[in-house]
Amino acid sequence: MSELKVEIDPAEAGFAKDRLRRIDENFARYVDDGRLKGWLLTVSRHGKLAHVASYGQRDAEAGLHVEPDTLWRIYSMSKPVTSVAAMMLYEQGAFELTDPVSKFIPSFTDMRVFTGGSDQRPVTVPATEPVRIWHLLTHTAGLTYGFHRTTPVDAMYRAAGFDLGLRPGTLAESCDLWASLPLLFQPGSEWNYSVATDVLGRVVEVASGQPLDEFFAQRIFVPLGMTDTGFYAPPQDLDRLAALYARNIEGKAGRFNSIAEEVRKPPAMLSGGGGLVSTAADYNRFLHMLLHHADSPAGELDGARLLSSRTVAYMSRNHLPGNSDIEQFGRPINAESPQRGVGFGLGFAVVIDPAAGKVVVSDGELSWGGAASTAFWIDPAEELTATFFTQLIPSSAHPIRSQLRQLVYQALV
To answer: Taking every annotated instance into account, which residue ranges of this chain make up the domain Beta-lactamase-related (predicted)?
Structure first.
């Protein structure tokens, strides 16, 4: 089990201890007034944890407090893990980023694109180019999510059984179902948050010849010492699993059981887009592998190298055409990060204009979050990472991510 403890004196890492307390005090109020039940946060610099704090309960009904080893549903924070897995295979020559996805998933041959009509009577045209692997990595494939509830194509996903927490069938079967539905737009022409990373996970399976859980375990989790991360919480660890909550009409956190139980047993579908359970200690090890600092170049941690530093740097560039941000190029309907001044790399959001979002950030910052209000960012310029773990749906309920940034950076003196 990875340990979660402060590894460097905050002052030595450039933080003012009294200012770090502002972070804890701010988020303690979220629990005291009922907006959250509990949380855990970390701040590290130069690859060492400088601040760890927690408050409240992981399961309020059972009276269980947040502990360092609490297991959290990280939902879309699974996506960077899947993207790293894909790029590890890229480094082996398993594919090129421009390869058609149909090379690995034949059902993606001859895709069609929605142009009008309704979910019951859609009008479609042939795709002008194939869905390519880089489209999956950047959410520009034309795929979508049923839970967006903004387009007829979203409704078609729901009719096929895909909604928040609902994943019928295996990963291979799901990919074939998605391929049978029209794309929302021509591949590469827009950005839309989607099941693209789940499809990428299937590419990893086909290219590697391994189920996704085996690839993750053997190639990522074991080398990095991520002993508590997987697609479900095993029986012996269920007492550590945080309960899931949702914002109710009073703005408080209320128990949300409808999709909470899915991580208590092995899933039929291995969702590289949103299926992982992890701990703060484990996820910090993953982030520290991606962080470049004096003691460890990016792509490596404690002697275990997953990627070359050049590959990590390439993933960290904005890959949206014309260096556009998500607000300009896409359909910024997800609430998991600010979109103005933020582009998208190969698996992460990346800041391209720090002033645009009106939140203190650094140029080149990498970030993402999960549906239950978990979040992380990596700041290469400051050699800093931060994480926040809680279990509240939706992630748009409160300005946790922007407040965490302003409070972390005011403490860095």
So the answer is: 23-398
